Amino acid sequence: MDSILHHETVLEHNRRYIPGGISSVNRAIDPAITFTKGEGAYLWDAAGKRYIDFHAGFAPYFLGHNFAPINEAAAAALKGGDSLFGAGPSKAEGQLAELICRNVPAVQKVTFLNTGSEATSLAIRIGRAVTQRSHIIVMQGGYNGNHDELACNVFNSLAEIGPRVSPGEYPLRPLGAGTTIGQTHFVHAINYNDLESVRYICRRFPIAALITEPLLQNIGVVKPQPGYLEGLRDLADEFGFLLVFDEVKTGFRHALGGYSQVCGVKPDLVVYGKAVANGFPLALVGGKAEYMDSIIDPDPARRPFVAGTYNGHPVAVAAATETVRYLAANKDKIYPKMEAMGAAMEAGIAGIFARRGVTACVARQGSAFSFYMMAKPPRDLHDIIEGHDFARDVALRRALIQRGVFFVPIATKQCSLSAAHSDADVEFTLEQFESAVKAIW
Ligand SMILES: Cc1ncc(COP(=O)(O)O)c(C=O)c1O
């Protein structure tokens, strides 16, 4: 069957029942490929065409699609009669909690939810309950979830936010209609890598929490400048707000202990999702026991509300437990392998750009990388919107897709290697990259 025809038929059918035909807006891509199978480092579309996958479902598949030990653990939970009892403690969630606390240095206590958005929402709530303050700081170019309080200021045009603001804050720009973020005045968006703006906001407002991805991975890969994360820690201590690292994308991908373990800066709370259960829906909030224990504070005025029918669902808990076990047992092999493959990809892509005379750079942390049509990696969103060539970025991704390499066709989106990729996959990808660059420039 002609694959384009097939994709259009599926989309057409779905559109009759689902607005836009897809249940998450950022999955709507052009070309609208209908994938039918994922295994290891590969995806197959409805016509049977195989792609090397660097999207990894927006990054959860750190061990690859349909990784057998994890699928088996999830199936075993069901076959063994485990169910969502909906009452009382579960042995499995206690075991997973213990594993997380033993393997993630920033976590003394932890609670489980289903999605990253639920988890970031709870982290903010804990920050407010603990400090008895309302204001929060977010990063321009950071994404921390789909809920009213945080769904703002990820990608803006210069027309929307104007020239660089430092020190100071940017106007709030909700990601969509129907939220109250424009009216609440409790959220302050500042540039990443800008400590002076944190201080500026803290002098004017009582800040409950600052939430940030430790490196921004929703606008590619934007890394902290030396001293930045340490500076955030110092400011949190000086002004008494909770430092929340949103490790939904970085947790387990850069180390079992997340980027906080890599950089050695301890946040007050961390949020994990995505790779924590290698594609099964589980997220967590963890951190210092004194803050996590606010969840059971005897004083209702200081006790954040936590509830969820599916929190700690046995299938997702089994998947996460096997993910932690597997990574803990194999970390000395997996993380160096990912670093080596990431370095080969970075050097290969940078070499291709240089050979073809294209002004572009690669930004990378371990297995996560991105490229920008800029002379050097950006330090924040402002650099990207001023300097990046968005149209060429998407054109390059589409040319790669035609050549059997799936870089999601959304400008700047992070590309993710998984432990299932091989050196041969990297080599093939680089050959296709060179051919795609030749076609575009
Ligand atoms: C850093 C970060 N935080 C939070 C979220 C929200 O997670 P979810 O989509 O599971 O709600 C995402 C999702 O992409 C993310 O990248």
Structure in words:
- Strand 1 and strand 2 form a beta hairpin.
- The protein has helices spanning 3-15, 68-79, 91-103, 116-131, 158-161, 181-184, 195-204, 228-239, 258-263, 289-292, 314-355, 381-387, 390-402, 423-440; strands spanning 35-39, 42-45, 50-53, 109-113, 135-140, 187-191, 207-212, 242-246, 269-272, 283-287, 361-365, 368-372, 405-406, 415-416.
- The protein starts with a helix and ends with a helix.
- It folds into two domains: 3-66 and 330-440, Aspartate Aminotransferase, domain 1; 68-326, Type I PLP-dependent aspartate aminotransferase-like (Major domain) (Aspartate Aminotransferase, domain 2, 3-Layer(aba) Sandwich).
- The longest helix has 42 residues, at 314-355.
- The chain is 39% helix and 14% strand.
- It is of the alpha/beta class.
- The strands form three sheets. Strands 4-10-9-8-7-5-6 form a seven-stranded mixed sheet, with helices on both faces. Strands 1-2-3-13 form a four-stranded mixed sheet. Strands 11-12-14 form a three-stranded antiparallel sheet, with helices on one face.
- It contains 14 helices and 14 strands.
- It binds pyridoxal-5'-phosphate.
- The site of pyridoxal-5'-phosphate has 15 residues, from helix 4.
